[in-house]
Amino acid sequence: MKSTGHPVWQVAGWIIQVKSLMHGRESQEEHGLCREPIGAEKRPSQQSVLIKGFFSVLQKLKGTTEKELRIVLLGLDNAGKTTLLKQLSSEDVNTITPTQGFNIKSLTSHGMKLNVWDIGGQRKIRPFWKKYLENTDLLIYVIDSADKKRFEETGLELSELIGEENLIGVPVLIFANKQDLATASPASEIAEGLNLHTYRDRAWQIQACSATSGEGVQMTFLLILITSHDLPFTP
Amino acid sequence: MADEDSEWVVEGIAGYLGSPEWVIPVTDFMENKCTVFDDEDENKLTYTEIHQQYKDLVEKLLETYMQDVGISEQQFLEACSSSFAKSKTLQTVFQPILATDDFNMFRALMVQKNMELQLQALRVIKETNGALPECLLDGADVMNELEKQEMDILQEVIKRSKEEYDLEMAQRLQSEQEIGSTSRNCSDVTVVEAGSIQRHASPQHISTNKENTTSLKREELKAVDQRGVLMGPGKNSSSAPSTLPLEPVVLPAVRAPVKGTEPLAVVREKGSSNAGQGWIEEARKEAGISKPFTELSTEQQEQLQQRALYLRQQRDKLLALKKEQKPKPAIPVEPPSTPAPTPSTPDDGPRMNGASSVREDRVPAQTGSSPVGGQEKPKDISVEEKKKLQKRKHLAEKLKEEVIKK
C-alpha cells in the first residue's frame, strides 16, 4: 500500500483504520451514549449501533463515495483558529472577529471531504469543547507562539483534551502559529514545553506556520505531515 | 424473498415519515427551536445543543416505530441498503433523518423553517392590520433612499425659496425706497431695513441691489398689483387650498433660510425679523388674519410660517409633476409599437382591431393636445408618429402574411 499510492491516500487509509479501530471497541460504543443529556434513560448500546448503521447506509445514499473526515480545531482564544480555517478554505482573513460560537467548513481535498470544526477558544466557551469531540478523526491544536505568558495555560488545555475519552488515539497536529511575529518561539521549543514526546498512544506532529500569510497551512502538506512522521502509534 | 421483505420495510418507513406520529413531533420541535437559527456565518453554541436534542428525538421516534411494527434491526438495515439506492425520490423523504448526522443540513433546515415562520407572521400581520407597520417594512435601504430623496428635495426647496426671498427683498427694498410706501406697515419696515442695511450690509450686496433696481422696478410694481388683486378674494376665503399654490411669492420660508453662512447673515440678524415681518404681514392678510404679525400668538405665527412652507412645497410638487408629465406622453406611444404579440388566429382578430383603434384614438388626441399644452414638441411627435405608422404597417403586413398563409 505504501509503495503504490500517493502519500495522501496513505493518510486516508491510516486515519480510517484508526477510526474503525476506535469504533470497534466496546468503550467507544459507550461513548456514543455520552451525547445524551445527563439523567436521560440509558438505552441498550445495540440501538446506537443500529442507528449508526442506519446512518452509514443513508450516507451511501447521499452518493458520497468520498471519505469524510471530521477535524476539530481547538486552542486558546486569539490563537488563530478561525484565521487558519479561513486560510484553509481560501477565504478573506482580514475581517475575523473573536468566535463566540463555532464555524464549520467542508473542504474537499484529494477525494476526501474534510469537515473542519472551529470552536471558539474563550475561557467561557472551553467547557463546550468536549461536546464536539465525538467521532473526531484529527485534532488540530493551535498555539499563539508569541504569547509566552499563556504557554502554561495552553499546555494544560491540551493535556486535558488528550485525556478526553472521545479523543483516545486520535492524532494531534499542533500548529505553532504566528511565526511571522518576531517574538514567536520556535516550534521545537513549544514541542518541548508541551511534552509532546511523552505522547505514546497517538500520532502527533507540530508545524510552524503563519495563518495570516498562509505559510505552512496547506491542507495537503498538513496531511502528508501526519503520515510522514515516524508514528509512535501502534495498534 | 428478501427483496420483497425489504421493500415492505422501506415503504413502511417512508410511510411512517409521512404520518402524523412522525410529522407532528418533528415539526413541533423545529418550530419551537428554529427561532435562534439565523443566517449568520458563525454558528451559535446553542445550535449544537438543539441538534443533539433533535438527534435524540429522531432516535426515539425511530426506535418506537421499529418496536411497534416489529422490524428487527437486521431487517431495517437490509431494507435500507437494498431499495434505497434505487429510488431517489425517497432520499428527500429521508432528509430529516439525514439531518441528524449532518449538522449543516440540519442548520439549513432550521434556518429555512425560521424564515418560513417569519414570512407567515408577516402575512398574518398584514392581513390583520391591512398593512405592515413601518418598522417591519423590509429594507432599511429603501427607506433611507426615500428619506434621502426627500431631504434633497427639501434642501432644494429651501435653497430656492431663499433665493427668491433674497431677490424679492432686494426688489422690495428698492422699490419702496424709490416709489414710496403703499402701506404704512411696510414703509416702516423698510425704513428700518434700509437703515440696518446701510449700517451692516456688505457693499457687495448693496451694489447688486442697485443693479437690480432699475430692471426690477417695473416687475415689482406689477407684482405688487397682482398681489393686490389676489389679496382681495384671499382675505375672505380663508386660505382656500386651490388658490394657495398661486402665491408662492408669499415669502414663506422666512425662517428656513436664516442660516449664518450667507453674506447676508449680518443683515439678517437685525433686519430679518423686521423684513420677514413685512412679508409675513402679507401672508397674514391673505390668510385672513386681521392682527398684524407681531401681535399674533407664537402659535399663529408658526401656523403662518408652516402654511407658507406648505405652499412652497405644493408648488414645487406641482412643478415636479409637470416636469414628469412632459416626457411621459412619449412613453405610452412606445408599448403598442412593439410588435410582441402577433396574433395569428382569427379569434384574436377583433381584439387586435380594437387595440389598433384605441391607438388611433390616442394619436389625434395627442396631436390635438400639443397646441393646448404649447410646450409639446410637434417635431418629436411627428417622428414618433412616423415610427409608429411604420411599425403598424409592419404589423399589418405580418398579420396579412399569417392570415393568408393559413
Automatic annotation (TrEMBL), chain A:
GO biological process, alphabetically ordered: protein transport
Q: Does the keyword Hydrolase apply?
A: no
Recorded GO cellular component terms are: centrosome; Golgi membrane
SMART domains attached here?
A: ARF, SAR
Query: Which of this chain's residues are annotated to bind Mg(2+)?
Result: T82, T99
**Could you tell me which InterPro entries the record lists for this protein?**
ARL2/3, P-loop_NTPase, Small_GTP-bd, Small_GTPase_ARF/SAR
One MF annotation (Gene Ontology) recorded for this entry: GTP binding
List localization entries: Cytoplasm, Cytoskeleton, Microtubule organizing center, Centrosome; Golgi apparatus membrane
Q: State the membrane topology.
A: Peripheral membrane protein
Keywords for the protein's UniProt record, in alphabetical order: Golgi apparatus, GTP-binding, Lipoprotein, Magnesium, Metal-binding, Myristate, Nucleotide-binding, Protein transport, Transport
Stated name of the protein: ADP-ribosylation factor-like protein 3
**Organism from which the protein derives:** Umbra pygmaea (Eastern mudminnow)
Automatic annotation (TrEMBL), chain B:
Q: Where is the composition biased (Basic and acidic residues)?
A: 376-387, 396-406
Does this entry carry the keyword Nucleotide-binding?
no
Which intervals carry biased composition (Pro residues)?
329-344
GO CC, sorted alphabetically, is: cilium; cytoplasm
Q: Where is this region: Disordered?
A: 322-406
Question: Where found in the cell?
Answer: Cell projection, Cilium; Cytoplasm
Q: Which UniProt keywords apply?
A: Cell projection, Cilium, Coiled coil, Cytoplasm
**What Pfam families does the record point to?**
ARL2_Bind_BART
Classify the main location: other
Task: Indicate the segments forming the BART domain, all copies.
Answer: 6-118
Determine if Coiled coil is one of this entry's keywords: yes
Family named by the database record: Belongs to the CFAP36 family.
Query: Would you tell me the protein name for this molecule?
Result: Cilia- and flagella-associated protein 36
- Organism of provenance: Umbra pygmaea
